[in-house]
């Protein structure tokens, strides 16, 4: 792990060095791309400004408190039943979202957020993807059980100006709440920061909650400087993960949301590093589903909903009487490095909740199979590099590029780190041997968490659920069971996108 007292003693000269560029990068989100895979991100002067006292646009410069808008849908161009066909284009786009001045985003089909894709189990999906960005990218179908060569792995990048077709069929049992985003190695964090992300829903034809009204809340964050540009990552961003000052729902700042207590709400945490502890004072939440779909039964009411980066849930909101209030994101201490911040709550939306009593819920929402006894076992360790170089040595680019590791190694594109067999039930023990939170994500399938272990205390998972992302607290071990159903390369990594780009990732070969 990284010893923070040594980092804190590092000379202030370190802050004159912007973090490493892991790609050819557009300075401050606009202008001409800077060449060189290992160039500095911006010049030294910009790095010092960004890390010491970055000038950000005040919150009141973005319009707020407008009615929540539904996410735009990607139109199905096919008239054939059971087939979804569409075109998705990633390209720069100018949009005015704050300070009455344009910002250059990188967007899917010119939309912020990207268009929502909605299909049914069993559908054949065909997406023509066009890359009109100045650099390579991919589309990763986060959480979906798609073939390895269709999953947007970093090994399968689409070059600037190129295009490809993604094809897959979604099997029975895959109904759930998913999303899509870029996954080119070293480029992912800034591509998402510039706006490339969209939601994806797979529906079941026998959904027991199909008749309920439904709302979708895609939560993301956006950083704008005083010139309304999207600035590059700072040194602190690379170490802790980027958080923008504007926290948005469906691309809107503090929207006004109206819903009744019988509404099914799907929530996405599409932030690169921000954790969510959602609360509406005077209300409670009923958890209905997780990443990979509905639970077997609705859970007991709770006061808040926790979402690590990339996690999703399905919930209902309960209140005894009509309520006017606020949707808050309560402070969560994820043990950032070199950062002290006020422990304050953030207002995400203004809520008007109409009480219609506790909705009648089916006793069984879903049937989740028991995966059975594992026949193979894997141990994963997230860690941060040791710094025994002396208290006065500043942070360098090479240190950052070897800072975050999986099983003691930084990601290499052509190295196979683990192997699995198709159809075998495995038990994975993922240990966070560091003193900051890391969300773990596995491609290609969903897993079932069995237990969590910390400080010698074993806590069984209270209910069965399909997940593809799970948070690990410092020095916590999460144990889950999983089965891969198709061969190929699958990624596993930290879903703080900066950590992923810096190499906190591995290759799993399924044979």
From TrEMBL:
Residue ranges, annotated region (Disordered): 141-161
InterPro entries, sorted: Cu-oxidase-like_N, Cu-oxidase_C, Cu-oxidase_fam, Cu_oxidase_Cu_BS, Cupredoxin
Segment forming the signal sequence: 1-24
Major place of residence: periplasm
Domain Plastocyanin-like, chain residue ranges per copy: 96-206, 396-510
Intracellular or extracellular location(s): Periplasm
Keyword Lipid biosynthesis appears in the UniProt entry: no
Record keywords, A-Z: Metal-binding, Oxidoreductase, Signal
Protein name: Multicopper oxidase CueO
Organism: Paenalcaligenes hermetiae
Gene expressing this chain: cueO
């Amino acid at each position: 792990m990284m010893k923070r007292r040594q980092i804190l003693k590092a000379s202030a000269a370190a802050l004159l060095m912007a973090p490493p560029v892991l790609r050819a990068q557009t300075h401050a989100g606009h202008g001409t791309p800077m060449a060189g895979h290992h160039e500095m991100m911006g010049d030294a002067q910009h790095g010092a400004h960004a890390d010491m006292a970055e000038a950000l646009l005040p919150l009141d410069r973005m319009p707020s408190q407008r009615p929540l808008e539904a996410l735009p849908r990607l139109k199905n161009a096919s008239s054939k039943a059971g087939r979804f066909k569409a075109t998705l284009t990633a390209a720069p786009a100018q949009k005015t979202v704050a300070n009455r001045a344009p910002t250059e985003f990188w967007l899917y089909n010119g939309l912020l957020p990207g268009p929502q894709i909605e299909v049914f189990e069993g559908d054949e999906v065909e997406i023509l993807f066009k890359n009109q960005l100045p650099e390579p990218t991919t589309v990763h179908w986060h959480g979906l059980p798609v073939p390895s060569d269709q999953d947007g792995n970093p090994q399968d990048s689409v070059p600037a100006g190129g295009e490809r077709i993604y094809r897959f069929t979604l099997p029975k049992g895959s109904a759930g709440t998913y999303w899509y985003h870029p996954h080119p190695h070293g480029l992912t964090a800034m591509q998402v920061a510039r706006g490339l992300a969209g939601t994806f829903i797979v529906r079941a034809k026998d959904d027991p909650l199909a008749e309920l009204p439904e709302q979708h809340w895609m939560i993301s964050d956006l950083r704008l400087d005083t010139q309304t540009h999207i600035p590059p990552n700072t040194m602190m961003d690379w170490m802790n993960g980027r958080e923008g000052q504007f926290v948005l729902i469906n691309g809107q700042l503090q929207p006004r949301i109206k819903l009744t207590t019988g509404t099914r709400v799907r929530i996405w945490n599409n932030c690169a590093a921000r954790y969510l502890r959602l609360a509406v004072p005077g209300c409670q939440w009923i958890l209905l589903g997780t990443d990979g779909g509905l639970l077997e039964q609705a859970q007991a009411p709770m006061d808040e909903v926790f979402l690590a980066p990339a996690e999703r849930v399905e919930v209902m909101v309960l209140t005894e009487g009509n309520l006017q209030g606020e949707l808050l994101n309560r402070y969560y201490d994820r043990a950032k490095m070199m950062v002290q911040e006020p422990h304050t709550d953030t207002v995400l939306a203004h809520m008007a909740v109409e009480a219609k009593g506790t909705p009648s819920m089916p006793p069984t929402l879903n049937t989740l199979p028991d995966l059975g006894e594992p026949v193979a076992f894997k141990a994963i360790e997230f860690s941060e590099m040791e710094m025994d170089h002396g208290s006065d040595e500043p942070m360098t680019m090479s240190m950052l590029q070897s800072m975050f590791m999986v099983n003691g190694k930084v990601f290499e594109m052509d190295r196979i780190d683990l192997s699995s067999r198709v159809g075998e039930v495995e038990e994975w023990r993922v240990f966070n041997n560091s003193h900051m939170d890391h969300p773990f994500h596995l491609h290609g399938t969903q897993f079932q968490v069995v237990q969590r272990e910390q400080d010698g205390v074993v806590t069984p998972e209270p209910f069965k659920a399909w997940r593809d992302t799970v948070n690990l607290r410092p020095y916590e071990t999460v144990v889950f069971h999983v089965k891969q159903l198709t061969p190929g390369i699958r990624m596993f990594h930290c879903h703080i996108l900066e950590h992923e780009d810096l190499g906190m990732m591995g290759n799993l070969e399924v044979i």
